[in-house]
Amino acid sequence: MTTILEVLGKGTQFLSQKGIKDARLNMEILVAHELGLKRMDLYLRFDQPIPEESLILLRENLKKRGQRIPLQHITGFIEFYRDTFKTDPRALIPRPETEELVDLIHKAEFPKPARILDLGCGSGVLGISVARALGPDCKQLVLADLSTEALALAKENCERLEVPCELIESDLFSGITGTFEVIAANLPYVAESVRDELEPELQHDPAIALFAGADGLDCLRKFASECAPFLNPGGLVALEVGFDQGEAVSRLLQDAGLAEATVARDLNGIARFPLARKP
Q: Which residues contact 171 (CB under 8 A, 6 or more apart)?
């Protein structure tokens, strides 16, 4: 029978030929997912034979990955911050940088206990992770999105992790009521002009979660102009934006009357996270 090590080798070679970055890591995740193991467990089981029925399913998933279907859509889950979340084509696949935004919010000063709004929540990973990090300092979590499909996915993640939340269908602030101590958002920020230049995997994300006009700032402009009335005094706005948009979005927040506007950098040194407060 074919062993785990043999399958890893052949699968890695196949994915490399298809232009998949981190082909070995991808293959390890696919094998571990199929066998119900942790990825690191594979290193203790290299000589273990893989049942034929598992090999059949692995070949199907390997073919999908070679067609540039995202790994997360194949496994159906993603590790994010401290938890495992369900993910599928209903919402944007969470990026590693967004985990850094969770940390920034967790460590920031704002009135507590906090009512938290994750606007454009997608699968809910940002808001849920912030709420779980804050624990009793989170008074209420509100998840809002224009997409009913994304909200359904966010609800599933809240239920899986037993996080109480209010779900609101809303085009930015159109359906939002009340005020918040934290408004967090990872809104669409990709310019339409680069649509054809994106990696094939991104084509599987909902377009509504990616693109925002000619310069990618249409959604963020509207957000900045509308957000202040929904913040309590001392309340925090925390955003994730494109690699070259940080300073522009910070100015938009200042122009809207917010104070202490800064742009935090991600681990690669990119000015990625505009932060501001209501005076």
A: 146
Under DSSP, the state recorded for 60 is: H
> Predicted confidence band at 106 (pLDDT cuts at 50, 70, 90)?
very high
Range 82-277 classified under CATH 3.40.50.12780: no
pTM of the model: 0.93
Judge whether residue 109 has pLDDT over 90.
yes
Query: For the purposes of burial, counting CB atoms within 10 Å of the CB of 80, is it exposed (0-12), middle (13-18) or buried (19 or more)?
Result: buried
User: Amino acid identity of 191?
Assistant: A
| Residue 120 Ramachandran class (φ > 0 left, ψ -120 to 50 alpha, else beta) | left
Does residue 169 have a pLDDT over 90? yes
User: In what helix (H) or strand (E) does residue 231 lie, and over which residues does it extend?
Assistant: strand 231-239
Separation between Cα atoms, residue 143 and residue 238, nearest integer Å = 15
Tell me which DSSP letter residue 243 carries: T
Contact indicator for 227, 120 with CB cutoff of 8 Å: no
> Whose CA is closest to 41, among 33, 81, 83, 20?
33
Structure confidence at residue 196 as a pLDDT band (50, 70, 90): confident
SS3 call for 235: strand
CA angle 173, 168, 153 (to 5 degrees): 125
The contacts of residue 99 (CB under 8 Å, 6+ apart) are 80, 81, 129
Mean pLDDT over 160-180 rounds to: 97
